[in-house]
Amino acid sequence: xxxxxxxxxxxxxxxxxxxxxxxxxxxxxxxxxxxxxxxxxxxxxxxxxxxxxxxxxxxxxxxxxxxxxxxxxxxxxxxxxxxxxxxxxxxxxxxxxxxxxxxxxxxxxxxxxxxxxxxxxxxxxxxxxxxxxxxxxxxxxxxxxxxxxxxxxxxxxxxxxxxxxxxxxxxxxxxxxxxxxxxxxxxxxxxxxxxxxxxxxxxxxxxxxxxxxxxxxxxxxxxxxxxxxxxxxxxxxxxxxxxxxxxxxxxxxxxxxxxxxxxxxxxxxxxxxxxxxxxxxxxxxxxxxxxxxxxxxxxxxxxxxxxxxxxxxxxxxxxxxxxxxxxxxxxxxxxxxxxxxxxxxxxxxxxxxxxxxxxxxxxxxxxxxxxxxxxxxxxxxxxxx
Length: 385
Ligand SMILES: Cc1cc2nc3c(=O)[nH]c(=O)nc-3n(C[C@H](O)[C@H](O)[C@H](O)COP(=O)(O)OP(=O)(O)OC[C@H]3O[C@@H](n4cnc5c(N)ncnc54)[C@H](O)[C@@H]3O)c2cc1C
Fold this sequence. Notes:
The chain has 13 helices and 18 strands. 32% of the residues lie in helices and 27% in strands. A hairpin with a 2-residue loop joins strand 4 (80-84) and strand 5. The protein folds into two domains: 11-63 and 103-171 and 269-382, FAD/NAD(P)-binding domain; 172-267, D-Amino Acid Oxidase, Chain A, domain 2 (2-Layer Sandwich). Residues 15-21, 38-41, 51-52, 127-128, 153-155, 159, 177, 179, 223, 266, 285-286, 293, 296-300, 302 line the site of flavin-adenine dinucleotide.
């Protein structure tokens, strides 16, 4: 774990205690900054079900001291399998690239504990309503707070971003997904490779997809995909007859899915922001680059960019923070932009149903090591020309 403390006296205000905000705050605090996070929610918790993490985010978790806790209740499935109309099309193991599946609450708790250990102050029920590029935030209470660095990690509906007026494009894909955590039900599922991630696709007679992701010995993340305009497929609680008729082999887990509390259908959102920083305000995570989950890289990119922002801001000499953030965006952004573009392509074409999507090119950000100072020289070989 890194504990450089060469920037004592600098202060950061962070909006949002999601994966991006917690990562940025921890990495800054470990470098000597005083850091305060504002979370509008009354509680510190992550909504949602499961998540796939890759080498890039695992490296960040190691660097900020959250890795051991994450590893203690997560798993690496033997294969990522894709099935199309019940035929197995591909088994991918990513050639030894580290990857992990886990629940979102567990990842959030691990990041939160790392932030608290680093001395980050966290204010719940504290909504940031606007930010000023010169280094000021305003809270819903009317209070204003000054900082050397403001981090907008407040997700797709970022008020930091929108109050400053960053030029942006936002759109929703035609497809979306119902995300749930259910018991593994291994014994009832019968014989089969039930430790794999299995991406089940049916396009005929209609598009219904099930992403099956074991997270540990007890919990299964199950994501049920249907078009936004399919009232029956996107319905919550789920229509059990519809889903079991498409996927009878998954009946035990679908039965639990039908009883899940607070099920929600999530549309795939994309946010493209013309620039990631203005003055001493930086955007990270979904505030800057929400993307469809085709390559499972939204949180990975969020954590990578949050971490590299903290390093770049710390290395900036006094009075040179804005220039350092400009360089940070120039260096890091192309990787995220390419990943976002590929994710949007997959979401638009549903080409993941063909399997074998994890080519070297598509794994570019997953392979990336945000903690390696020589990373830009090393990653040229997998970048698109
Ligand atoms: C279906 C689906 C599956 C996905 N699967 C994966 C996957 O397998 N792997 C992966 O890497 N990524 C995945 N992603 C993407 C990933 O979930 C997101 O990219 C990631 O959660 C973004 O984190 P964040 O911290 O930027 O934003 P958020 O998680 O949205 O956190 C923002 C935080 O800010 C708070 N907030 C909002 N507004 C304010 C305000 N004004 N003031 C104060 N606080 C505020 C919110 O309450 C929240 O706590 C998936 C996304 C979807 C939709």
